[in-house]
Design goal:
Blueprint: E1 3-7, E2 13-16, E3 21-25, H1 33-44, E4 48-52, H2 58-74, E5 82-84, H3 90-99, E6 102-106, H4 109-116, E7 122-125, E8 131-134, H5 140-152, E9 164-168, H6 169-181, E10 184-186, H7 189-199, E11 200-201, E12 204-205, H8 214-221, E13 231-235, E14 254-260, H9 263-291
Parallel strand pairs: 3-4, 3-6, 4-5, 6-7, 8-9, 9-14, 10-13, 13-14
Antiparallel strand pairs: 1-2, 11-12
Helix pairs in contact: 1-2, 4-9, 5-6, 7-8
């Protein structure tokens, strides 16, 4: 059913209509909030939606969708407006994306690539690799506190949490001291070597550290930390993911810390981290598809 969503004084009108059935791929890193958000998108646009939860977060994703479905039906929505895969798998994901009218895929580069390869329209959201810049105009105590709170929530699993902090040289020591005073552990060179081996394996982020506590990560890597430790911090210089695992999106209470001389250098570092960890793979793939 068509409806007018916008008109102007010249008589121009913009129409909108439901697209049909949407395939919603939900990641393990945001198993409930992403499901609820996508459900609301479907309701606002009058579309049906079938959810494919991540196998490791199947129960909580289904519970979230069921909660929204019950509230929607109670408010007058059709009973079958939402459904889900009870036993999600890659073959079922692919079949769902091939048959849906459009796919909303949230996940890693592989999942996003699969959505773009399904033969149907798709909107993919992959990794973000969020950097934060602290310059000499910042309230150092407040900035560090906010970063720590963001990073320890859900053990750093949320992709919107900071993955790297870039600090101007003039306040670097003050920022480092503030992190230490707030129970953050700075890794020594030997400890960095041990943790690096657990971050990336065969060129990809290992799931072993994702959403794990500092104590669990420290135990599996052989690093000794206090029970009160909140974050593991590595002082690094390279933003090249091929040589520096700490530069990648870690999705855990592990943080990379960069020291730069100017604000322009800080922005350059931030841009490289975002491009390497959030843009390069999807954009290269889209460009290749466009060339074909």
């Amino acid at each position: 059913m068509w409806c007018v969503v916008r008109e102007d004084k010249y008589g121009n009108a913009e129409f909108a209509a439901p697209i049909g059935v949407i395939a919603a791929i939900v990641p393990v890193t945001n198993p409930t909030s992403t499901a609820i958000f996508k459900a609301l998108l479907a309701l606002k646009t009058r579309n049906g939606m079938i959810f494919s939860p991540h196998p490791r977060a199947r129960e909580c994703t289904i519970a979230a969708v069921r909660t929204v479905l019950e509230a929607a039906v109670k408010a007058g929505a059709p009973e079958g407006i939402f459904d889900w895969l009870d036993m999600p798998s890659l073959p079922l994901n692919n079949a769902l994306m091939e048959r849906a009218n459009v796919t909303l895929a949230t996940g890693g580069p592989g999942m996003v690539k699969a959505a773009y390869s399904s033969g149907k329209p798709a909107i993919g959201v992959g990794s973000g690799n969020t950097p934060a810049v602290i310059d000499d105009t910042a309230d150092v105590c407040l900035a560090v506190r906010f970063i720590i709170e963001s990073k320890i929530f859900d053990d750093g699993m949320i992709c919107a949490s900071e993955q790297a902090v870039i600090v101007l040289d003039s306040i670097y020591d003050a920022v480092k001291c503030e992190f230490i005073e707030n129970d953050c552990h700075f890794l020594s060179y030997k400890e960095m070597v041990l943790v690096r081996e657990k971050i990336v394996i065969n060129g990809a982020l290992t799931s072993a550290i994702v959403g794990q506590s500092v104590q669990t990560i420290a135990k599996m890597t052989g690093v000794n930390v206090e029970a009160s430790t909140k974050i593991l911090i590595a002082e690094v210089s390279s933003t090249d993911l091929s040589i520096e695992p700490f530069a990648c999106e870690k999705l855990s209470p592990v943080l990379a810390l960069y020291r730069v001389k100017t604000f322009e250098e800080a922005l350059n570092h931030a841009s490289k981290l975002i491009e390497a960890g959030g843009l390069v793979i999807p954009l290269q793939y889209i460009q290749r598809m466009h060339q074909k």
